[in-house]
């Protein structure tokens, strides 16, 4: 006996990890200790365990059967004995073999129940071990091979573990191989969870179709709904399953009395609304109410926001009435949404009416007493100020102060100060700033930025700087944005020295590092002031601190270099853009093309235009106009006309404008080709491109050179029809010409109603007055030379 017990102890030591597995189940009612066995069973159990240590195919099955299932023994004793043995076999595989032996050796119901329960233990215990998925699947296959049926609990553990590990093949295999009688709602839930984790939404929906049938044997539970809707409302499923499909699923679950929580329902309503299915969202909400789903303000608020985005005020009101019908009381969020959207669409009177409803003062049957909070006050005050109703905003501010528990905030004052600054009322803005401080509200960076920006833009730059100094004294640190606003303002008035002083203060003293926008602002200001060397130095500093020029900065510098005729510098910057990864845009190309065209380098200009098109940019009217103007200045009107013909071709997407017509008409007239110039004007009017006074002046000058008086008189009539007012250049041409041929009366009729005619009426000597007025134009001849002005 002692030898047998020692043998048993040795076996138990070698299988410690399995003991630990089974020890987890020591609280189970069918888990048995040696002390609980029937007297005399210890020898039988010890002998059975000794036999079971050998390979399965060498077991003495007859002896085992005699030891385990003796005749004329109570079922209770047999079960206890089997439980103890199953819990102490050194191998999970052999445990399953042992259970199979028991299953095939007895048809007693209690024995079969024991086999299933013990198999469940083996699998669930293995499932509790970390990183045991492969072992678990192997055990499952052994159980299948040995014909040991799984319980629902064991199946659930298997599916949960495979789902968590995203072992999709194993997951699907287990689910489809289990006995139909084992499959229940919990098993399906574990399977669904695993499918969704592996992003197999379509396969999950097929399982759901079976569960959601009206008389399904696997009806969904609340847990099913939580699994499904938690997954489908995540972002990764937005392209896999549509909002309409999710809404239909909600309806099917609802027929089983199961609904997602209000947060998930609100999220779905929001998604329907944002995807343009606002009517679907409205129908969906009503169906939720009809099926007995949660009737909460949160769901209505989600749809209310949707109607607000769609600017459908009527539906917003309809929803509010529906809420009243369903006894859903609007909350502070409901009113906040309504007021916010009404303010956005400038319907301030309606917003104020809703505000009255909150205080129980409404007159349309939707009055309810809900105290407005600071957010609602701020929304209304901001909305009123944006439509120029600052005084009403101030009145609301005073009303806000009287309401208990709702004091004005820094945001409240920022709204008012911002709008007064934008309307140019800087004194009122500053007064509000002082009032804010008196009431103990600390201005923040936004407050300071609003005031500094407003003062700078309204010619109060020095006051803005003084305010900056005051704020620093009280410990408010200005941001890079505030300094940038001041630098921009000083650059705009060409006070570059002050702009540089602020930039240096920012870099060296304030401890605030200039950001990229600060650099861009200063570089642009220096370039436009013609201080290109300084602009280059700041650009180098920008690169040293790790920033790169943006497209706007490159364009400004290139434009300024072109104006200074620093062609190489401009072109080098253009090449630098490529290496810096900044793609030139249409403005970049147009600037360079105009520059090279002006300097008669048409080869380079054409190269740039070809490159522009290769890079996917379509030449604009500015591009073509630059080339046309340059060719005309160079006397190459034929080349200019070729570009013009391409522009007005049927396939062209760049129709010529008034300036281009003017350049060509003027150039043709100077060459004496007046008929072609007149034809261009006819084409211009036919294409509904409106001629201006410069157009007529150029053609009148050409007609004068050819002495084509009749055509000039007709052109004067056309000028009147086109409502183009004559200027001093028109007077210079017509006075000299018409006085020489005795047609001053026609000139007076032509000028009737114009400001020039009023001057003529003041002078008795009409002809002398005409010459006097015309002579004043001599200083404007340069203006006339540029018909595109």
Automatic annotation (TrEMBL):
- Listed InterPro entries: Mito_RNA-Proc/Resp, PPR_rpt, TPR-like_helical_dom_sf
- Report the PROSITE patterns cross-referenced here: PPR
UniProt-recorded Gene Ontology molecular function terms: mRNA binding
Q: Record keywords: Lyase included?
A: no
A UniProt-annotated Pfam family: PPR_1
Q: Which UniProt keywords apply?
A: Repeat
Q: Where are the PPR repeats?
A: 184-218, 296-330, 331-365, 373-408, 409-443, 444-478, 479-514, 515-549, 550-584, 585-619, 620-654, 657-691, 692-726
Indicate the secretion signal residues: none
Family statement drawn from the similarity comment of this UniProt entry: Belongs to the PPR family. P subfamily.
This chain's protein is named Pentatricopeptide repeat-containing protein
Supply the source organism's classification: Eukaryota, Viridiplantae, Streptophyta, Embryophyta, Tracheophyta
